[in-house]
Amino acid sequence: MCRSCAPRSRSTDRVATQGSMARLPVVAPDGGWGWVVVGALFVASALVFGLIRSLGIFFVEFVQHFEESAQAVSWITSIGVATQQMMSPVGTALCNAYEARPVVMLGGLLASLGLILASQATSLTHLYLTMGLISGSGWALVFTPIVGCVMAYFSRRRSLAMALGFTGVGLSSFAFSPLFQLLVELYAWRGALLILGGLSLNLIACGALLRPLSGAKAVAQAPDNNVPGVVSSCPSLCSRVYAYLELSLLLQKTFLTYALAVTLFNSGYFVPYVHLVPHSRHAGFSEYQAAFVISATGVADLVGRVASGWTSDLGCVRLPHLLSLWTGLTGLFLLLLPLCSSGGSYPGLLLISLAYGFCAGAMTPLVFSVVPEIVGVGRILGALGLLQLIESVGGLLGPPLSGWLKDITGSYTASFLLAGSFLLTGTLVLAALPSYFSRAPPEPSHQKQDQSLESGLLDHTGTSPDLTNKTYNSRPPPISEPHSEDPLTDPALDLTSVKTSSLKEDAKC
Question: Could you give the CA distance from residue 393 to residue 81 in angstroms, rounded to a whole number?
């Protein structure tokens, strides 16, 4: 009988589940079925964030139909984005328990249901509940699990794979804006939302294409004794929740610093996609001219994503520095956007929108590519869920705050200035990461296995650690490092002593 098929003893299972989460040993193939998963991410990102970006077409229709302020209507998009991000830990926990395929398929159903119900809305409150809560919950169950699957399939070419998957956002931004404008003219906003609900059913097909590498769901267990404030006990509901949600990441300073920076990015990132069309209409341009601005921004976004993924995988510049470059330029172009569009200059508005779209697209794959270097490859899903939960504060407050400024000032100038300021502030927070200003060249991945978490982040050039060659000490690994994947191949573990301690624990329980 082969080793992988042989039954394991209870003591061996306890070793395998030591740490925060335990999974079967996997090696990223950097291709194969992974490219199909990248295709699923392409479609899913188009039907989630591509759709969110193009909701500005409905902004003017909602203001006129419900006779509400810009601030009140802005809450529709904000609630949807915030729900998607706040519910992400729930999606990752369900994936740890049941795998990604059924979770993503359920999310696609909820996303479609919310848009279909929104087509029958009679007040803004109905839109808050349908497009905001129901569709937002569906997007949460779709987006993060698919991103985690792509990261698991790729190691050396992870940034490029993420960039190609996220090009769906740029391509859909180019196609959706004029398409939505046409649908609104032909079928009014109710018919347009009904069609979008049917289109979102394709998310179910994306979930059906997922094939987890591990072949089995993650196993939850009690947290490590070394974690402050946590007491080990027999498996319980609380310990499973703690493990599935990866709550120990909230004790890591580096992770929290990065989460703060991303939250500030998120506060300004979605503002142009909510208010760029109304700003163009306010500046005196036609409906299709305003829609074309979003389309052109989407094309530039697509090119920026591919260029960013390709250059980051070259390894010439460290990922935190590249991320700072693109976020800083994105904030700067947002500050210049009102100035370039003043006086009814359509070429100026189009040019600055192209520059903004390129930089905004370039920063997006890097935000996710840095995450494995902070928490380790084995905890990607939990980290993505918690990261989006924290950054949801920015997505919830950014667009309504900019809408409030428009109601006060009568123009969108202050809104874009505020959005650019958020991005520039987040760039400064990113520079607070440990050893950010170090000029030491990146080390090969096999020389970084025993280094601290911070140095693993800041010396990274796009190559993930080789988990199959790591040497372990006899003591349990720190909670911030990847854990032993297979105790049967680890010579440093004394299975005899483990078995003895296991029997003692069984007696206590």
Answer: 10
Neighbours of 272 (CB within 10 A): 30
d(CA 420, CA 422): 5
Predicted local confidence at residue 313, as pLDDT: 74
Q: Is 270 exposed, middle or buried (0-12, 13-18, 19+ CB in 10 A)?
A: buried
In angstroms, the Cα distances linking 129 to 109, 122, 470 are: 16, 12, 49
Residue 392 has pLDDT above 80, yes or no: no
110: nearest Cα among 399, 149, 90: 90
Length of the chain: 509
Type of residue at 78 = S
For residues 492 and 228, give the distance between their C-alpha atoms in angstroms, rounded to a whole number. Answer: 26
Q: Where are the alpha helices (DSSP H) in 370-464?
A: 371-375, 380-409, 413-430, 453-458
| Rounded-to-integer distance, Cα 482 and Cα 378, Å | 6
**For residue 443, what is the DSSP state?**
P
184-205 mean pLDDT: 92
Tokens 């795998």 label which residue?
A: 99
Are 132 and 79 in contact by the 8 Å Cβ rule? The answer is yes
Model pLDDT, residue 139: 92
Q: What's the N-to-C CA distance of the chain in angstroms?
A: 33
C-beta separation of 266 from 395 below 8 A: yes
Q: For 401, what's the count of Cα atoms within 13 Å in the CB-facing half-sphere?
A: 15
Q: Which two tokens stand for residue 199?
A: 């289109």
List, in order, residues 6 or more apart from 9 with CB less than 8 Å away: 499
Q: What residues have CB less than 8 Å from 501, skipping those under 6 apart?
A: none
Residue 289: exposed, middle, or buried by beta-carbon count in 10 A (0-12, 13-18, 19+)?
middle
Residue 446 per-residue DSSP state: G
Question: Phi/psi of residue 219, each to 5°?
Answer: -110, 125
* Residue 468: how many other CB atoms lie within 10 Å: 11
* Listed residue (215, 231, 213) closest to 223, CA to CA: 231
The whole-number pLDDT of residue 343 equals 67
Extended beta strands in 395-478, E state? none
Of 88-97, 333-342, 423-432, 456-465, least confident by mean pLDDT is 456-465
Q: What is the pLDDT of residues 201-225, one digit of tens each?
A: 999 999 999 987 754 344 444 444 4
Cβ 123 vs Cβ 66: under 8 Å: yes
Give the alpha-carbon dihedral of 285, 54, 187, 200, to 10 degrees: 170
- Of the listed ranges 3-7, 317-321, 324-328, the one predicted with least confidence: 3-7
Measure the CA–CA gap between 143 and 165, rounded to whole angstroms: 11
Q: Quick one: how far is CA 454 from the chain centroid?
A: 21
